[in-house]
Amino acid sequence: MTCPKCGSTMEPRTLGHAEVARCTSCHGIFLERADLGNLIEAENDWHAGAGIHHTEPLPRITADMTAPPPSKPRAKAYIETLFG
Fold first, then answer.
1. pLDDT tens, 1-45?
2. Distance set, CA 83 to CA 21, 28, 70 (Å)
3. What's the pTM?
4. Counting beta carbons within 10 angstroms of the beta carbon of residue 20, is it exposed (0 to 12), middle (13 to 18) or buried (19 or more)?
5. Which of 10, 11, 35, 73 has its CA 20 to 30 A from that of 62?
């Protein structure tokens, strides 16, 4: 598939139920109307389940524990996970 704007190659990506094509040159994003609806629903669900704080409960600390590896920060929005 080629980009309708600049003619470069489009890179397809699938996330959940949506398929999006992204231009490798101008980074334009193209998708079908149904996929836009799927992304909107997923974005709303992402924020609805986020709550006020994005923290997890602390584990019980014991003497034999080691420090956990650094965690990847949670994306601010569901759409960020598509091209992140």
1. 899 889 999 999 887 788 889 999 998 988 888 888 888 888 888
2. 11, 12, 21
3. 0.52
4. buried
5. 73
